[in-house]
């Protein structure tokens, strides 16, 4: 059964939210090549607020189109952001849904903000979401459905 897309752009990127603060992932867990810092506008659904776009620097593997973000960093930055938007929603669950076009997102920072509908016009869900599993042999990526 087809699921309705939230973002209007074709799905882009793979995403990995790294819950292990001690694992830095300077190499891509999928192809073992060096990752590089890159800033993205992440589309996040926060419990108690709804969707929002937030700028976040993550690690990026261009070959795999994989964005890696540290969960503890994102937790802190989102809490900071929600403290202004919706103090009641601080510390609640959230889901990173996809990315928003950075140019559009930046433009929104300098105007009176964008409507959600406009933001979603320029957003793309992730193609897939990876999970980092730590086992005896170290870490390895495991795929998880985005559905
Ligand atoms: Zn890679």
Which ions, cofactors or small ligands are bound in this entry? zinc ion
The secondary-structure element order is EEEEHEHHEEE
* Number of domain units: 1
Q: Any idea what the shape is? A: globular
Question: How much beta, percentage-wise?
Answer: 35-45%
Class per helix and strand makeup: alpha+beta
Report the biggest beta sheet as strand number plus sense, adding barrel if it closes. 8 strands, mixed
Distance between the termini: 11 Å
Strand line-up in the sheet with most strands: 6-5-2-3-4-1-7-8
Descriptive report:
The chain is α+β, with helices and mostly antiparallel strands and 147 residues long. It has one domain (14-144). It has 3 helices and 8 strands. It has helices at 71-85, 102-110, 116-121; strands at residues 14-18, 36-46, 50-61, 66-70, 94-100, 123-125, 128-135, 138-144. An 8-stranded mixed beta sheet has the order 6-5-2-3-4-1-7-8. β2 and β3 (50-61) form a beta hairpin. The longest helix is centred in the middle third of the chain and has 15 residues, at 71-85. It is globular and about 40 Å long. The chain starts with 13 loop residues before the first strand and ends with a strand. The relative contact order is 0.26. The mean pLDDT is 86. Bound molecules: zinc ion (ZN).
Can you lay out the helices and strands and say which pair or pack?
Elements: E1 14-18, E2 36-46, E3 50-61, E4 66-70, H1 71-85, E5 94-100, H2 102-110, H3 116-121, E6 123-125, E7 128-135, E8 138-144
Parallel strand pairs: 1-4, 1-7
Antiparallel strand pairs: 2-3, 2-5, 3-4, 5-6, 7-8
């Amino acid at each position: 059964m087809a699921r309705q897309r939230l973002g209007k752009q074709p799905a882009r990127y793979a995403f990995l939210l790294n819950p292990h603060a001690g694992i830095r992932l300077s190499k891509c867990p999928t192809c073992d090549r060096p990752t590089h810092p890159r800033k993205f506008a992440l589309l996040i659904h926060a419990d108690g607020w709804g969707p929002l776009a937030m700028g976040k620097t993550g690690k990026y593997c261009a070959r795999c189109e994989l964005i890696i973000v540290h969960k503890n960093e994102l937790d802190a930055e989102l809490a900071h952001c929600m403290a202004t938007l919706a103090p009641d929603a601080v510390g609640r669950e959230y889901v990173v849904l996809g990315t928003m076009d950075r140019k559009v997102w930046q433009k929104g920072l300098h105007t009176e903000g964008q409507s959600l509908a406009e933001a979603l016009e320029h957003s793309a869900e992730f193609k897939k979401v990876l999970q980092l599993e730590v086992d005896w042999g170290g870490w390895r990526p495991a795929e998880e459905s985005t559905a």
